[in-house]
Amino acid sequence: FPLGLGSAPLISVEGHQDGGIRVVCRSGGWYPEPEVLWKDLNGRHLPSLSQTTSPGDNNLFETEIVIIVTEHSNQNLSCCIRNTVLHQEKESAVYIADPFFPSVNSWMVALSVILVVLFGFIGLAVYLFKMKGKLTEEV
């Protein structure tokens, strides 16, 4: 088989998952099976959620790697795919801006607290009303 340096990694943002954003990197046309990883701006390896590599057309390898990016993790990241025999790599980068991350609105928190307090008062009122009824029956 001739050695193959595949296509540039294609990064796609595929929606919200597990409190963060699911980001997928795909590439094809590699031989032999490439090394695939996510890196931060400083070149440090980032843990991926999943990775699959399989032979595609013409027995060249296709690969996909997934990461979940959270607001407090690395929002600047790159997908790096390496041909370990040719010692060459292709890399694509992405930045996920703050507005894409799900946020909790302060009014939702306030409403939740008010509802909990309200149901607490209702429960207390029902309990006291029943206790008053029992005391009235005993007298």
From TrEMBL:
The chain crosses the membrane at residues 107-129. Gene3D superfamilies: Immunoglobulins. Keywords: Immunoglobulin domain, Membrane, Transmembrane, Transmembrane helix. GO terms for cellular component: external side of plasma membrane. It is found in: Membrane. It comes from the Eukaryota. GO terms for biological process: regulation of cytokine production; T cell receptor signaling pathway. Signal peptide: none annotated. Residues 5-91 form the Butyrophilin subfamily 3 member A2-like Ig-C domain. One of its GO terms (molecular function) is signaling receptor binding. InterPro entries: BTN3A2-like_Ig-C, Ig-like_dom_sf, Ig-like_fold, IgSF_BTN/MOG. PANTHER family: BG-LIKE ANTIGEN 1-RELATED, BUTYROPHILIN. This is Butyrophilin subfamily 2 member A1.
